[in-house]
Amino acid sequence: MPTESLLQALDARRSVPSKQLGEPGPDAATLARMLASAVRVPDHGKLVPFRFIHIRGDARHALGDRLAARTRALDPDAPDAAVEKDRGRFSSAPDIITVVARLTPGHKVPEQEQLLTAGSVCFALLQAAQACGFGAQWLTGWMAYDDHVSQLLGLAANEKVAGFIHIGTPRLQAPERERPDPAALLSEWTPDA
Hints:
Layout: H1 4-11, E1 21-22, H2 28-38, E2 50-56, H3 58-74, H4 80-87, E3 95-102, H5 111-131, E4 135-139, H6 147-152, E5 159-170, H7 182-185
Antiparallel strand pairs: 1-5, 2-3, 3-5, 4-5
Helix pairs in contact: 2-5, 3-4
């Protein structure tokens, strides 16, 4: 029989925009509990193809300053508004957990599956944050794919940002949005197809 409370938790999941996340963030024990739940994902080969980087406090603003500088370096004519947007990307939520995919090239488990495991960690962390009474949002953006930013974060050559999970106390109730109809997305495969 289905466990209704688990299904209800899945059904209740909402992303809270990072700009609507404020203090307090999770304390150390709560964050550790959330991460303990987040690591319980499918992991073919038991590679643990992920790790975490915690960005909090003044480090959020320092990273924002570096993002703003990178924006200017990439486009000296970038509008001031774009530069300031990048400066503030990590300033709202008190805690950002960067989920880093650690890929093992040439392993029998394809890199795509390893990356999907890291993505599953991102989703599980969203669920764990909400279960602990916090709001969260999974973001990437250009900085997740920029080699210079990867160096700033201390990523190795085989690592990629899977997501920046912004966590904090919601300043508003996240509204429900229209969800796709699963029946419209489901097809049946038959051997005659």
